[in-house]
Specification:
This protein is α+β, with helices and mostly antiparallel strands. It has a single domain, classed as 2-Layer Sandwich (Ribosomal Protein S5, domain 2). The protein is about 35% helix and about 25% strand. The protein has a five-stranded mixed beta sheet with strand order 1-2-5-3-4. The chain is elongated and about 75 Å long. It starts with a strand and ends in a 32-residue tail after the last helix.
Length: about 130
C-alpha cells in the first residue's frame, strides 16, 4: 500500500500530512475537516482540495499540525495537503494547476518573525525616543 508523508510549514506552524488510497476523507488532528475552525480558514484549506477534486476523492488525508497561530496552521495544512496530493498522483497537470492558481500551495513562505532587540520593550525595530532639549 502506497503512503506518502509530506510536511508544510508557515511561520512557527508545522503540518505533517499522510496521503494514502481511500475514499476522500480529510482529517486534521484526528477531526474531520468540517470541524476545523474558524470557517474562513477552513475555506483556505479547502482550496487545495477543490483544485484537485477528482484526485481528492480517491485518497484519505490525515494531517497533524502543531505550533503557531490559526492562520499559520491553516497555511501549513494547505501546503502539506497540496504537496501530498502532487506526490501521490505524480501528476504534472495537477502541479501546474496548483502553480497557476497560487504558488504558495507548493512553495513554502520562508518569512519568519524578526527577533526582538534589547531596550526596545518587546519590539523588533522601535527605538527609544530622544530629547535633545
Amino acid at each position: 500500500m502506497k503512503v506518502i508523508n509530506v510536511s508544510g510549514s508557515r511561520k512557527r506552524a508545522i503540518a505533517r500530512a499522510s496521503v494514502k488510497k481511500g475514499t476522500g476523507m480529510v482529517k486534521i488532528n484526528g477531526k474531520p475537516l468540517e470541524m476545523f475552525e474558524p470557517v474562513y480558514l477552513r475555506a483556505k484549506v479547502n482550496e487545495a482540495l477543490i483544485l484537485a477534486e477528482s484526485e481528492c476523492k480517491k485518497v484519505d488525508i490525515s494531517v497533524r499540525v502543531a505550533g503557531g497561530g490559526p492562520t499559520g496552521q491553516a497555511d501549513a495544512i494547505r501546503l502539506a495537503v497540496a504537496r501530498g496530493l502532487v506526490a501521490f498522483t505524480e501528476s504534472d497537470e495537477l502541479r501546474n494547476r496548483y502553480l497557476g492558481y497560487d504558488r504558495q500551495l507548493l512553495v513554502a513562505d520562508i518569512r519568519r518573525r524578526e527577533s526582538r532587540k534589547p531596550n526596545c520593550r518587546g519590539k523588533a525595530r522601535s527605538k527609544r525616543q530622544k530629547s535633545y532639549r
